[in-house]
Design goal:
4-stranded antiparallel beta sheet, 12 strands, 6-stranded parallel beta sheet, 282 residues, 2 domains, 11 helices, alpha/beta, Aldehyde Oxidoreductase, domain 3, TIM Barrel
Length: 282
């Protein structure tokens, strides 16, 4: 599967990252130590087991520094990695390769870490029928890349941003005076193409959301017993039930087995450890 994003989104992120790293004077170390005409091949390798993501951004980093660099034999996002797996090769002027190295590895390691953690959660609920998805708890400016990494790890897509759907959260409910009134206002406002979801933290609020006509209900920090009760109450309604709140690799399967449709996990993007990859002379 192709997980590439529109090129302008990736280029914008990469250019900002390179600008941050290069500052006003560029790569002083490479300028001071490397002849302009020195050429070599370098190999990107995984140093830990995981799932690959971020190759589009990493390739972009090299080519933004020097479009003459040759990028060969790159693996695709979503592929499994073992220690020593060759991710790709870069050949050309050494100054350009080493100037782009850190930004390329930062993006590749960050995004592969997200894909790796997502893949672990997806594997933990295999066979349950539930899906793992992200939240909006992403790194500012990196959301498009991070959500593509979730997809590369086998995760499902939630809303990208505030303009994708109406998701009535607890503060909206409180400001409206209750779930039913919040959903009523949302339905009055929304067109037929806009999905309405509401977050609840008690079973009686679920009943109100179902009666008011919400299409999705987010069950926030429900116990396993309450998740099972919620799934029973919503059975046959066509409403999507989403469990959320402090879900870990140890607890995710019992949550999935309650009968919910979706499990959203902020940790996929806010707490994924970096996957170790390195660049070595070929």
């Amino acid at each position: 599967m192709n997980y590439d994003l529109p090129s302008h989104l990736v280029t914008d992120v990469v250019r900002r990252a390179l600008s941050e790293d290069l500052g006003g004077r560029g790569d002083l170390t490479s300028q001071a130590t490397l002849p302009v005409d020195l050429q070599a091949e370098y190999v990107l390798r995984a140093r830990a087991e995981g799932r690959l993501a971020g190759t589009q951004a990493a390739r972009c980093a090299f080519l933004e520094i020097d479009p003459a660099l040759a990028l060969d034999n790159w693996r695709a996002d979503g592929e499994a990695l073992a220690p020593g797996t060759v991710v790709g090769r870069v050949h050309g002027p050494v100054r350009g390769i080493l100037t782009a190295e850190r930004v390329a590895l930062n993006l590749l390691g960050r995004l592969s870490g997200i894909a790796t953690l997502t893949h672990r959660f997806v594997g933990a609920i295999d066979g349950t029928g539930a899906r793992i998805t992200h939240t909006r708890k992403t790194t500012p400016g990196l959301r498009a890349l991070e959500l593509a990494a979730v997809a590369a790890g086998g995760g499902a897509m939630h809303r990208f941003g505030l303009g994708d759907a109406i998701l009535i959260k607890d503060n909206h409910v409180a400001a409206c005076g209750g779930v039913a009134e919040a959903v009523r206002r949302a339905r009055e406002f929304a067109g037929h193409m806009t999905r309405i979801a509401v977050e609840v933290d008690r079973l009686d609020q679920l009943d109100a959301a179902l009666e008011a006509g919400a299409e999705s209900v987010l069950l926030d920090n429900f116990s396993l017993a309450d998740l099972e009760a919620a799934a029973a109450r919503a059975s046959g309604s066509g409403v999507t039930l989403e469990a959320s709140g402090n879900v870990t690799l140890e607890t995710v399967r019992p949550v999935a087995e309650t009968g919910v449709d979706v499990i959203s996990i902020g940790a996929l993007t806010h707490s994924a450890p970096n996957l170790d990859l390195g660049l070595d002379a070929g």
